[in-house]
Design brief:
about 0% strand; mainly alpha; globular; about 140 residues; single chain
Length: about 140
């Protein structure tokens, strides 16, 4: 993919690739959550939640950096990819919460300052995933 302005013919495959890659991110997040529940919670107790948040951010950073390096989106396309991933992530979280029988308010509450202060790093992780494609696209540019 190129870094310049993209035509509709090149944008559609890029966004299709990005949407499919979001499934990889979802799988990483699921695996990170499973690791937290099956291993870290037993070893660390309540500290497992923030540790899992940090490992999730690191996993996402590596995966997204590799994705941006491979597909080479321009800044605008990378920003749009991040926005798409934000919407997909929030929609998936809402579906999973409601499917588990909990009220949708649970999703909203994870974005509160109190939740973050208690070690729930889901909100910073979601913001990071949304902003990292344009950030990594900018970091790929040579300095002039």
């Amino acid at each position: 993919m190129s870094e310049g302005p993209m035509s509709p013919e090149t944008l559609l495959p890029l966004f299709r690739t990005a949407a499919l890659f979001w499934l990889v991110l979802f799988g990483l997040a699921f695996a990170n959550g499973a690791l937290r529940e099956l291993v870290l919670a037993r070893l660390l107790g309540p500290e497992a939640l923030p540790v899992s948040g940090i490992t999730g951010i690191v996993l996402m950073a590596v995966a997204i950096a590799l994705f941006v390096r491979r597909v080479r989106p321009g800044f605008g396309a990378a920003f749009a990819i991040g926005a798409m991933w934000l919407v997909l992530t929030l929609a998936a979280e809402a579906v999973l919460v409601v499917a588990s029988g909990k009220p949708l308010r649970v999703v909203v509450d994870t974005f509160s300052a109190a939740a973050v202060a208690e070690g729930d790093l889901f909100a910073p992780l979601v913001v990071f995933v949304a902003l990292s494609p344009p950030l990594f696209a900018l970091l790929r540019r040579p300095l002039h």
